[in-house]
Each structure stands twice: as structure tokens, then as C-alpha cells.
């Protein structure tokens, strides 16, 4: 997640976004260079009116797409908020049923450590990368390659063990399984967002529309009575429309392991601190508070 920090924050953000858009910006310059010596085909009657209608259409489609993309980003952030809430609820419920019995203490400690590992494992799976090595060390009782789904299943098995041994009553069992089920729901929602992007045909259409309008607008302005001013304004118009379309593409994938991700590892560190104590090594943020990008 890109953040504006310090006096030079906006400049750093602009640099990061520009680097991410470097090939698109290069394409804009190349297209503009190719169009400069070409006679303007749009200097016909009513060309301005046609271009205005096309601009309105492009703006509406790009705006709708970007709104949809932001909604996906915000939904992912909300679902991660649910993971944080239910992880804390798990910890609170475990504290409330803890009788101090030796066998019970061991299980509850394992469940807290597994809950923290679950969050790190889920973040890695959503990003499509290997989990950090320290995550598996949280629960050496579980196999190294255990998935996030299986970790929740193991949590449910420990709840069943606690219930079978009489360590907790039925009401406590229901409470623990309620938060477990809520975590399953949040995970399923996050996986849906990751696995079901905006249809590729629609994305191609929006990108093609943005480029078509940008090229037509540049061609029109290039043939104006003030060629230098027209070229500059045309370039800026192309950059604005293409950048707007690309930013929508970036934020519609909030778990793509890029700088546009939501800060999932930051959430995992917070959850680890809640469950295992703020002094735990995995509860420490992986980036400083002054970092421009949090992952």
C-alpha cells in the first residue's frame, strides 16, 4: 500500500506510480511522435462535437470501471478487518474459557499460535507467494505445507478435543466455532475477489476506448492554431486518460503482490501482537512507520 509520508511524500508517490506506468508513458510518447507529422484527419465539420461526445463516453466508462475497482479494493480491506476482529475474538474467547488446567493450557497456547500462523499463511496464499519462513515456526506441531483452510480445520479439531475432554461446555464450543466460521467466510470473500477479476473483455474495451479517445484528442489538438500548446495539452490529455484507466486496473487487484496491495503483512503483525504479545518478533512491522510502501 502506497502512503504519503513526510514533506516529499507526494513526490515519492508520483515517482512510484510513474515507474509502474513507465511502459504506458513510453507508449504515449511514441504514439504522439508518430502522430505529429501525420496530417490531421479530424479537422472536419462537427469534429469538436463528436470528440466531446466521445470524451463524455470515455469518462463515464472509465469512471464506472474505477468505481467498481475501488469497491473491490475496499471490500478486500473490510474483509481483512473481519479477520482482525475475529482473531481478537478468538483470543478473548480462549481467555474466557481458560481454567488453568495443564492439558488445556497447552491446547489454548497452540490455538493462539495457530491463529497467528493462519493470518500469515492466508496473506501469502492470496498474494500467490510462499509464506515467510517464520510463519511455520509458530506451530511446529502442524506440517510446514499446511494451507490456511487446513489450519482453520485444525483449530476446529482442537475445539472438539476441548469439548470431548470436558474442558469447555457446549456454549463455549459454540462461541469458538462461531468465530472460526466467521473467519471461513472472510477468507472465502477474499479468495473470491482474488480469483474473480473484472472480465477481460470489458477490461480490453475500457483500455481500447481510453486509447482511442486519447489518440483522437491529441490528433485534434495537434492541428490547432497553436501547435506547441496543442501538442502539450494533447500529451497531458493522453496521460490523464491512460493513467486513470491504468490506476483502475491496479486497484482492482488488491492482493496482487504489488505496491498497490492492501497492507496484509501489517495486518498480520497486528494480529500476532494481539495473540502472542506486542514483544513477539513477528508482531513487529516489517517496514518503519515512515516507509512509503507498506506490504
TrEMBL record:
The UniProt record lists the keyword Transmembrane helix: yes
Membrane topology, from the record: Multi-pass membrane protein
Aminoacyl-tRNA synthetase keyword on record: no
UniProt xrefs under InterPro entries: YneE/VCCN1/2-like
Predominant subcellular localization, coarse grouping: membrane
Transmembrane segments: 21-38, 44-64, 200-219, 225-244
Compartments, record wording: Cell membrane
Keywords in alphabetical order: Cell membrane, Ion transport, Membrane, Transmembrane, Transmembrane helix, Transport
Protein family: Belongs to the anion channel-forming bestrophin (TC 1.A.46) family.
PANTHER family: UPF0187 PROTEIN YNEE, VOLTAGE-DEPENDENT ANION CHANNEL-FORMING PROTEIN YNEE
Protein name per UniProt: Bestrophin family ion channel
Organism name: Mycobacterium pinniadriaticum
